[in-house]
Design a protein that fits this description.
This protein is of the alpha/beta class and 186 residues long. It is built from 7 helices and 5 strands, in the order βαβααβααβαβα.
Length: 186
């Protein structure tokens, strides 16, 4: 059985993690976001007094930091290949790395592009910015306006890799999960 690989993405504070946790609670196999722990660690090792929206400000080598994120997302993807479940959900996908690099005007080489081209997801779900639930914290540093710009970069990046992201409107967790499951099962 080949599992459907489904990415749930969107800008910061759009409800991705809550949806992933609920999908996991109801029995779906889910891979969690990796960047929050990496950002917190980078802040601890960098200059925690300089609050900026770019977590790369806390790392000595931004390219290496992004390469590690790419590697961790690839590890999740590779692990999913051996899971025998009908649907597997990912809190962010491999192309998210490039979308964020584009947002922060960072260059990347063909290796980053090839990883996105060679490791495909079956569906991409994208959650729009939602001001009423937006919160920044120790690992989510962006303003709401920056979250809107990141959303645009994410959508454009997935479209660049020939995905047709499914936009899930704001609503309750149950409503959003219902829309996601209907889209995935079409």
């Amino acid at each position: 059985m080949k599992s459907k690989k489904v990415v749930i993405t969107g800008g910061p504070s759009t409800g991705k993690t809550v949806i992933i946790k609920e999908l996991e609670t109801i029995g779906y196999n889910c891979f969690h976001e990796i960047i929050r722990d990496m950002t917190l660690e980078a802040k601890k090792n960098g200059n925690p007094g300089s609050l900026v929206s770019n977590p790369l400000a806390f790392v000595p080598d931004p390219f290496a930091f992004n390469k590690k994120i790419l590697s961790e997302r690839m590890a999740q993807y590779n692990k999913s290949v051996n899971i025998k479940e009908p649907i597997i959900f990912f809190d962010r996908g491999i192309p998210d790395v490039l979308a964020y690099m584009d947002y922060f005007n960072q260059s990347y080489d063909q290796e980053f592009e090839a990883v996105c081209e060679d490791n495909r997801y079956d569906k991409v779900i994208i959650l729009p910015p939602w001001k009423e639930i937006y919160v920044s914290d120790n690992e989510r540093l962006e303003s709401f306006e920056e979250a809107i710009e990141i959303f645009d970069h994410l959508k454009q990046t997935y479209e660049r890799y020939n995905y047709d992201p499914i936009l899930v409107p704001n609503g309750t967790v149950a409503e959003r999960i219902s829309i996601i499951l209907n889209a995935v099962n079409e």
